[in-house]
Amino acid sequence: MRIIAIANQKGGVGKTTTSVNLGACLAAQGARVTVLDLDPQANTTSALDLVPGENPSIYDSLIEGADVATLVRATKYDNLSIIPCDLQLAGCEIELARAEDHLTRLRGILHAYRETVDTDYMLIDCPPSLGILMTSALAAADELLIPLQCEYFGLVGLSEIVKVLEMVATSGANPDVEIEGIVMTMADSRTNLTQQVIDEVQRVFKETVYKTIIPRSIALGESPSHGRTIIDYKPASAGAIAYTALAKEFLARHAPQVAS
Ligand SMILES: Nc1ncnc2c1ncn2[C@@H]1O[C@H](COP(=O)(O)OP(=O)(O)O)[C@@H](O)[C@H]1O
Ligand SMILES: [Mg+2]
């Protein structure tokens, strides 16, 4: 099981949309995926049609010592499961902060769990802040996937998250973590700014940037309120086509790793 943190400290850039829909498209293409909802806002949980608060969250493992396997819930989609979020997760940052191992506790829990399952990928939907939950996710992850909105301020935030990643790596908490990819989201093909931002990110981050670009699409914004993924809600939409292509590209990048 590869652990992929989907993170960017900026809110509203497409982390949750990518967690849900990349997860759904990977599952539709045959990969076994678990999404971990680590954002107390619980948007991933409701987008996958679970009621936040009706199930335990990763809080139960982090603070109460519960076995992660008991937290995993099926979704209505084959191959796609979720560790949902509940209200307690909001208090998790404060409780974890008191613990000496706060940076690596999630890592310990997830790395023990992965020895027991045949899941291919765990996608962690991170909260929009550089707090303990997000840094814990970076410490636990094999890879970081950064959704980046096609706008000028997206670039500013990017250097911050790269710095945090370096901090997590050099602290010894997770020396091997790397940026798996940057996915450009909410692209508006009618604006020059979108293209300028994409060009600039590609110039600096080169092959790290996914060739698939996620367009701004009304259906992508609507689908969570129906508790459905984009390939279920509007399978012919531009958003469904884009996330399907992103999943293909993701699988091509990961093919050698899963086999090993
Ligand atoms: N490509 C897109 N096109 C249109 N709306 C989008 C797109 N991606 C995300 N959204 C919407 O924008 C808002 C923020 O996206 P979200 O994935 O929740 O961001 P984050 O998790 O980074 O805060 C949500 O209402 C979501 O439905
Ligand atoms: Mg979110």
Q: Please give the order of strands in the largest beta sheet.
A: 3-4-2-5-1-6-7
CATH topology heading: Rossmann fold
Strand count, sense and barrel status of the largest sheet are: 7 strands, mixed
How many individual β-strands? 7
Listing every helix as H and every strand as E from the N terminus to the C terminus, the arrangement reads EHEHHEEHHEHEHEHHHH
In this entry the ligands are: adenosine-5'-diphosphate, magnesium ion
Percent helix: 40-55%
- The backbone outline, from C-alpha atoms, is globular
Structure, described:
This protein is α/β, with parallel strands linked by helices and 260 residues long. The chain has a single domain (2-254), classed as 3-Layer(aba) Sandwich (Rossmann fold). The protein is built from 11 helices and 7 strands. It has helices spanning 15-28, 43-47, 59-62, 89-97, 105-114, 132-140, 152-170, 192-205, 218-222, 230-233, 238-259; strands at residues 2-6, 33-37, 73-74, 80-83, 121-125, 143-149, 178-185. Strands 3-4-2-5-1-6-7 form a 7-stranded mixed sheet, sandwiched between helices. Helix 1 packs across helix 11 and helix 5 packs parallel to helix 6. The longest helix is centred in the last third of the chain and has 22 residues, at 238-259. The protein is globular and about 50 Å long. The model has no long low-confidence stretch (mean pLDDT 94).
